[in-house]
Description:
Layout lengths: L4 E10 L2 E11 L4 E5 L6 H8 L7 E6 L2 E2 L4 H5 L2 E4 L11 H11 L4 H14 L15 H13 L5 E5 L7 H15 L4 E6 L2 H7 L2 E6 L2 E7 H5 L5 E7 L5 H8 L4 E8 L2 E6 L3 H13 L4 E7 L2 H13 L1
Helix pairs in contact: 3-4, 4-5, 5-6
Amino acid sequence: xxxxxxxxxxxxxxxxxxxxxxxxxxxxxxxxxxxxxxxxxxxxxxxxxxxxxxxxxxxxxxxxxxxxxxxxxxxxxxxxxxxxxxxxxxxxxxxxxxxxxxxxxxxxxxxxxxxxxxxxxxxxxxxxxxxxxxxxxxxxxxxxxxxxxxxxxxxxxxxxxxxxxxxxxxxxxxxxxxxxxxxxxxxxxxxxxxxxxxxxxxxxxxxxxxxxxxxxxxxxxxxxxxxxxxxxxxxxxxxxxxxxxxxxxxxxxxxxxxxxxxxxxxxxxxxxxxxxxxxxxxxxxxxxxxxxxxxxxxxxxxxxxxxxxxx
Length: 311
């Protein structure tokens, strides 16, 4: 069966600057992939090529077996997208907006009505369905943008940094919607520069920098590529400088940080036996350990190392 998203040797140049450099990527059906990279890595350019907002310099972008360049209308008929900051007519309400956009797609009024009500419930805008969009927060507009992307029941959803610029509450609301979509019959391609967001939501990750692919695979596969951990140790009493130096000499410890007097954060590359030895060493100094736990660092460490190497 044809993969729903296939990118082959994709290149995009701007006046001598190469924004996307021979990019190859295949996305399997019904997966949620995070397209991860720093600002300027080529994420939005790639998405604009996929959605026919930009023409590639060379290479191919294929959606459900159809070349976006050769037949954009057919290729994008199965795609719902949110690219950059969404804008809507401020004098319309969400229901009117979906009715308008649905009519442009040739959907019947009956289908638009039932589908629109369902989607407004999905994105938690039912209670403001009659409120003018000009009064909406950015987070509410982003949720409406996701609803319009889903209106025609696409098989592929393409999202360009959907939580960018949102306040913490808005980010949480959008991420909850994305988690719900993950369990449905969609292939989702989402760009982001936020490591915690990708690790929390996505099944698969593609890491890019300077328009080039650095690594891709499942979140589990990529986190296993580095053994770096971050261990958070919270003690009842402050640790002195001598204790910190002693911890730094334990096998597997690469760095010791002190966010505050009773919190010590240890970057650690050892195995389980070394981790046991670390805890025993800390307790052996008479430290009363209130908690000793791992933080997620593996994907972050891989990300930073790959980007550093690519530069």
